[in-house]
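Work package 3, deliverable 3.1, input record:
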Amino acid sequence: MNSNRSKPHGLLAEFHTAADIFEAAMRCRDAGFTQWDVYTPFPIHGMDEAMGLRKSPVGWFTFCGGFTGFFTGMTMIWYMNKFDYPLVVGGKPLFTPLYAFPVSYEMTILLSAFGTLFGMFFLNQLPKFYNPLFKNERFKKSTDDRFFLCIEATDPKFGMDATRTFLTEKCHAAVVELVED
Amino acid sequence: MASPGKSAAVKAPEPPAELVRESLVLNNRSLGWITNAIAGVCEKPMPMWWWPAFIVSVGGMLTMFSLIAYLVSTGVGVWGLNHPAAWAWDITNFVFWIGIGHAGTLISAVLFLLRQKWRTSVNRAAEAMTIFAVACAGIFPVFHTGRVWFALLPGYLFPAPNANEIWPQFRSPLLWDVFAVSTYGTVSLLFWYVGLIPDLATLRDRSKGVMRRFFYGLFSLGWTGSNRHWSNYEKAYLLLAGLSTPLVLSVHSIVSFDFAVSVIPGWHTTIFPPYFVAGAIFSGFGMVLTLLIPLRSLFKLEDIVTLRHVDLMCKVLLATGSIVGYAYGMEFFIAWYGGSPYELYAFKNRAFGPYWWSYWAMISCNVISPHFFWFKKLRTSVVFVWIVSIFVNIGMWFERFVIIVTSLHRDYLPSSWGYFTPSWVDIMTFVGSFGLFMTLFLLFIRFLPVIAISEVKGVTPQADPHHPLGGAKGHH
Amino acid sequence: MVLHRDGSVDDGRFANNGWLQEMPDSITKVTWDNVVMMSQKTAKSLGLPTKRSGKIPEDLSPAEAADAKDGQYDQPVVKITVGGRSVEGPVWIQPGLADGTVALALGYGRRIVGRVGRGVGFDAYSLFQSTSRHITAGKVEKVFRKHRLAVTQEHGLMEGRPVIREAHLEEFKAHPKFAQNMDLEAHFPGYVPYKEETDGRNAEKRPQNIYEHPYDQNPETASKVHQWGMVIDLQTCVGCSACVVACQSENNIPIVGKDQVARGREMHWMRIDRYYSHNPEVDVNAELAAEDPQMAIQPMFCQHCEAAPCESVCPVNATVHDEEGINGMAYNRCIGTRYCANNCPYKVRRFNWFDFNKRESDYGAAQDQHLVNTGNLYKGPLGVNRNTEPEWEIIKLVKNPDVSVRMRGVMEKCTLCVQRVQQGKIAQKVKAGNSGDVAVPDGAIKTACQQACPADAIVFGNMLDAHSEVVKAKASPRNYSVLGFLDTRPRVTYLARVRNPNPVILDLEKRKTPDSQRDYERFRHESPFQEHSHGHDASHQSATQAGKGAV
């Protein structure tokens, strides 16, 4: 690979146990890195605090979806059965929120679910099929039983040698360099 | 199990013995072993029995599709329906399948919210079962209509401008059903898919073949296991679980409204929503056991789907079976206490009328059989549990048959009383729906991880950074 | 042995008429066949199984009822010999027929007839002798064969339900409003808050609803000119079934053939329900019960409920009320979920299970197997299509051009002859011109059934016209709604039947009220001729008032 064309993406450190990466994450946080992440085969309990992450905002997407669903449902039913084409059906009122409720309720849940899912995709920037991490063969173990920590080159505190030393000395990890294509 | 091996290094006091939980994964397996064991199932060639099972299932599925083609081309009259009983096997099968489809979401969502970690071993298969059961369920109400081509056309059931310039009628429980079942199918699929994304990434990273790598890569959306992603992902999963719980309760409530909102004696009953939901959970867990018991032994997954799981699911069967039994009794009590001679007749007719055999089949399968599970010995005998689970499936089919057919065939005016007999098309379409279900399930086994890999790993001690097996040295 | 002309095909001249073949016999409700009628005792003496149709009630033990599926009666066949000639026909055990008598209908079993009548029934003319024509003696023997009959009504007892309300003349004189004091609606004042309706649409007492009917709440949805209603007088109805056929011809209702009738799929929008009642002091299973039954008949069709249970369950708005109170069907909107038919308490909706108008039915041929059917209708697109037949042009001419021909998968039912109503309104508008007097005069619109009724038992008209026949009829104390307690508010109501029995024939000491009334009293422990006792004082008072109003 031509090193002139490749600019560094960051440094990838590999760990064997959950406790090791947990500790390393706390050190990274305390060292003041911002452009870094931890890659684990399953979510590790407490890792958000260890990394210093804020609470996930997915819930707002859910709320917006749900509100839209309920409001759309009620309005649609009122418009269709009362306003646009009122028909005498079974001697029942032309509109009441009672009979409109089940459908509005289902629409609330449906749109909440869409909001949640697509909100999560949006926040996580998925789908994202290209990722420099995938170029590392070792990284495939991140979905099996290994734990990785990557500090990206775009981090203002990043320095190729200093960061490498930080990871090997302080975090006791095997470190490799990642490049962007 | 709290402190094997490195216990000497742990400074924290040991938890009292009664709080020590039995490990969910037996024999202290490593994370890598779990990946290999589960991903191995869909990576290795299928065992010999898979092929004949698949061929038979596909045969059943094709039978069903050909009979549906016959139905659509000829008329609903090819079924045995008639004038007092304008619904019979079609809606029975629909409610049967949709009921089965409730356990998956229940296990996934409700047990997730209740922090029941044992769910992780069974939720994937149960969710898959849900989706396939909803697919089977959806076929019946769609094709039971006289003019399917209009039923599926936007503007009839689905609100859209149309040539008739009439909108759907939102007072109809059937329309509520359309919204409920399609929402349920969609949300279950989303929920299942969200759970699959990390595992698809695992399969992507393990796969050797180009095709597999491409498709697993495509559907895993570039998942890396980033903790920033996990953070949003876990939140989304929690929210989806929170949404699925009221959804799963509402779906069968709305299905029960199809009957409860009507005026027919035996249908017009306020107890229906909770009774249907309990029945759905009952039948769903029955079906989960029917499928998982053979699966765990065929694929050597006994260390992940343990006897404790079977035991716990039997307890759910016992609880929901008792609720169902109570509902049967309460229906009779209210029929008498309510003072309507029409209602009382409908219930007497259920037990002692021409369809007495279906009523007593229902009672013996649903009310009597779960009570064996008071005994731990029977709860942990997999063969016995499997047999009872089959009875539960049969009994729950009969429950819907009893509710639908015995109420309809003798309602208000004795002059219109009649009798329903299924035709061969009725019978083979129902049998064929099992073919569709099994085909989808076998394909699921073939291509997707039957157990949620990342979730099972997440509940092992190795996953806990504060646990010795997770590498904790006793200090932070 | 009695040979009699048949109610459907007369002496055989109508044997090739599908409408008449499919019209249920007035009493037996058998279609597409003639039968050998005999009493239960006679059948027993011949060693025939009597468990099916002869017994009153036909409320059988489960094992027995399992014999009859969807109105399919597999009846034993007997051979009747008179003067060396014999015929074979299916036994029909007829309650009330004199013992030792067999009755056979003529006009069936014609050998040279069109394809409709071919092979239908047996030819009783063979037993016709020049010496003794209609009444003669003969020999009856068992034949070890069964014949399947297609019957439209399987259950012949009211089970104590006051579907038809009857009284003797003396009782009626004492309690003219007895019919409004029956079934659960008689208890409205006691158990449910209620209100008296006075707006003329329906002057019955009814429970207080949590919401008003749209006609009241949104008055723009109701016509101020016409509100249609109908009354059936059970007193004058003779059960001839002319209305059934008139309706069938007016509304393009297909015939479906014997096999489909046997499966419970007849398409008649109108049916005549026949109920037997027996002396309740006699055990229901005793032979005596079948010896001296009373019979009552009731035309039943869409009741055009103002609060129609069928409408609110239709997901696509295919059945709705128009502004004049007709429960209408939009055929091109219907997707065929059949939910409306299930939710109809009167079971008057009919579903097109096959393309009955396009595919030829098998007429009188009955399929032997229940489970598998190979008839023409079951062949679908591969079956014989009527369009290809030479008579297609003639078949088309049979249709009423004012009424849609329905395809398979569509629900249909009585529309109160909406096409005639529209024509009547148009004619009146033309006549009214600029005067604006668009109210159709009473009697200008007649429904097909009303027009055909020889007894004038059916009255149709505008309920907003205070002088119309229908308003007068509805003001009768005999007026009642079937299943009124459901609060469906039918626009079609019935006038209770008053019997005036001859005391010489009927032992009035023992049977001082009709048997159906006694059955009702036995099931419900209450009598319409007495005030009901209620739990608390307020309700008791209102019941007393109602009772006083009645007397």
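Chain C touches chain A through 25 residues (CB under 8 Å).
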